[in-house]
Design a protein that fits this description.
about 90 residues, Hypothetical Cytosolic Protein, Chain: A, two-stranded antiparallel sheet, about 40% helix
Length: about 90
């Protein structure tokens, strides 16, 4: 894998880390955050299919070795919706 490339935990697609959504289990607190923080990270494609499958099969929880609160999935869905609205406005 090339430097600065990461793999989606759901579809296994490899992309530059700026093109993926980052979920972090912070160190040392162990809290789960969306998009920022220092600690163990997992990445998702910015597609609703990948997010819903990751939620259904608990792929983020297994990858981060921690339970994922529903609020994180809500934040991810909002981020995807905002990015779709922004991309539609620029076209």
């Amino acid at each position: 894998m090339q430097p600065n490339h990461r793999r989606c935990v759901t579809c296994r697609k490899v992309a530059h880390r700026n093109q993926l959504l980052r979920i972090v289990r912070t160190y040392p607190a162990g809290t789960i955050q969306f998009g920022h923080g220092m600690g163990r990270s997992a990445y998702l494609c910015p597609q609703l299919d990948c997010v819903s499958l990751a939620h259904k099969k608990n792929r983020l929880g297994r990858s981060l070795k921690a339970p994922i609160p529903e609020s994180i999935y809500d934040e991810i869905h909002q981020q995807i919706q905002q990015s779709k609205i922004f991309s539609e406005q620029t076209q």
